[in-house]
Amino acid sequence: MTTTNMTVEGLIIDGQKVAAADGGAIDVYDPSTGSVFTRVARAGRADVDRAVAAAARAMDAPAWGGLEPAERGRMLLRIAEAIRRRAEELATLESRDNGKPLRQARTDVQVAARYFEFYGGVADKIMGHTIPMGPGILDFTIKEPIGVSAQIVPWNYPIQIGSRGVAPALAAGCAVVMKPSSEAPMTALRVGEIGLECGLPPGALNVVPGTGSEAGVALASHKGINQLTFTGSVEVGVAVAKMAAENVVPVVMELGGKSPNVVFADADVDLAIAGVAKAIFQNAGQTCSAGSRLLVERRAHDAFVDRLVAHTRTMKLGPGVDDPDMGPIISERQLETIERYVAIGLEEGARVAAGGCRATGAGLCGGYFYEPTLLADVTRGMRVAQEEIFGPVLAILPFDTVEEAAAIANDSEYGLVAGVWTRDINKAMALATRIKSGQVFVNTYGAGGGVEMPFGGYKKSGYGREKSLEALASYTQTKNVCIKYA
Ligand code: NAD
C-alpha cells in the first residue's frame, strides 16, 4: 500500500476530529523499520487559528470556564483511569511511533496517567490567601486560570511530556492547544480523544500535530494564546520565546542538557553501573535529562569503565515493540548527527571504549540503530563534553577531588539534572549544594517519572518549573482584591 492510500487521522479541534484546512497530511515513520506506518493531518496556520479560537471559547463557556474545580478534577481523574485502562494499546503505539522499548513506553504511559491523577487531585485546592491590612480592609488573592495555554511538545517522550503540561493546565482551568512533534504525534491524539470521552467539553483540549515551521510558528506567535510551555532544543526555544515576547506571553522553557553523573571511588559499584547506564541509554540517549557526562574518581576510573564496557556488550538492540534493551534513534537525520559527534570526539582526541558506529544485524534492517557508545579520554573543553548529542553516547572524564568534580560538573552551559554516587553523605551534600542544576539525584537517577518533584533547568536548560505543585504557578495568575468596609 502506498502512503497516499492510508487513512489520515484527524486533528482534534473544538471537540471534533477534523481534516487539516488545506488537506495536508504527515507521514508517520516507524524508526525501527524506517517505513511509514500511518498518516495524520498536518495542522497549518488556519487550523491553529481554529484551535486557539475554540480554546478561547471554552474559557468563556459555562461547560469549561464555569465548571466547579472539583468537577474539573474528577474529569482529570477519569482521564487517568482511561489511560490506565488503555495502557497496553497506548504503550504499543508509543513504542511504534518513537521506537522506544515497550517497557519504557509502558512506564511513560503510567507516568502520563499519574500526571492526570496528581493534578486531578489538585484542581480544587488551588487557593489564594488573605493579607493582613489592618481594620476595615479585607485583602485577598484569587488564583485565576491564565487562559489559553499553548503546549509545544518534542518527540522523545510524547505522552509523558504532553501530559506533564496538559494536566496542570487543565487542573488550573486553562484551555489547551497542544502541538505534538510531527515525528511522533500519535499518543497526543489518543490523549485528546480520551479527554473528550472522559467529558472534557469542546475546545478545552485541542491537539494539532504539525511541523515546527508551520503549526509551531503559528502557535508560538499567536495573539490569542495567554501562556506557552515549550519543551525542545535551545535553538528552537529561543526562537519560540522571542515570538511569544512579541505578544507579552509568558513562557516555560524546558530545554536541553548535558547532565553529569559523578561517581566516587567509594560508590556501590553495582548500583552506580546500573544507574549510569540507564541514565544514558534509556530512550537511546534521546532524553533531555540523560546523564551524558560521566565523571569518575581517577582511582576507580579504569575499573569502572571496564565494567561499563562489559555492561554495554550485554545490551540487546531491536525494534521497540520487541522490548529490547535499547531501540532505534528517531530518524536518519538524528542518526547522522550522532555519527558526526562521535567523529568530532575522535578528532578531538577521545577514544571509543565501546560502540562508536551504527548497529547492524538481524532484526535491525532499515531501522535507525546506533551502538551504545562510551567515549573515554574526554577532556572538559571538547565539544563532546559540552554539546548535547541526543543519542546513546557517554563522554567519560576522570577527576581527583570533590572541588574538581564540582568544577567539571558546572563547566557546561546547561544545568538540568545531576547524579552523585557515593556512600559518603558529606561528598554527596558537597556536590548537591555546589552543582548548578535544577535537580540532583544521589545514588539514584530519574526516580521513575518524579511527577511530585519540581523539574526544570538552570542556565540554558531553561526556566520555569514543571511537575509538582510548582507547575501550577505557570497556569494561574494572581488577582488581588482589596475591600474597604466600615
Ligand atoms: P525541537 O526543538 O526540534 O522541537 C520541539 C518542538 O518544537 C516540536 O514540536 C517541533 O515541531 C517544534 N518546533 C520546531 N521548530 C519550531 C519553530 N520554529 N517554532 C515553533 N515550534 C517549533 O526538539 P526535538 O528534536 O523535538 O527534541 C529534542 C530536544 O528537546 C533536545 O534538545 C532535548 O534536550 C529537548 N527536551 C527537553 C526536555 C525537558 O523537559 N527539558 C524534555 C525532552 C526534550
Could you explain how this protein is built, in words?
It contains 15 helices and 23 strands. The chain is an alpha/beta fold. 54% of the residues are buried. Helix 2 runs antiparallel to helix 4 (102-120), helix 4 packs parallel to helix 5 and helix 9 crosses helix 10 (298-313). 38% of the residues lie in helices and 21% in strands. The strands form six sheets. Strands 15-16-17-14-13-19-20 form a seven-stranded mixed sheet, with helices on both faces. A six-stranded mixed sheet has the order 10-9-8-11-12-22, sandwiched between helices. It has a three-stranded mixed sheet with strand order 1-5-4, with helices on one face. Bound molecules: nicotinamide-adenine-dinucleotide.
Number of helical regions: 15
The major sheet is characterized as: 7 strands, mixed
Query: Could you report the average pLDDT, rounded to the nearest whole number?
Result: 97
The low-confidence parts are: none
Distance, first to last CA: 78 Å
Helix content: 25-40%
User: Which ligands does the model contain, each kind named once?
Assistant: nicotinamide-adenine-dinucleotide
Strand residue percentage? 15-25%
Strand order of the largest sheet: 15-16-17-14-13-19-20
Give me the count of strands.
Answer: 23
- Computed structural class: alpha/beta
Radius of gyration: 23 Å
Overall geometric form:
globular
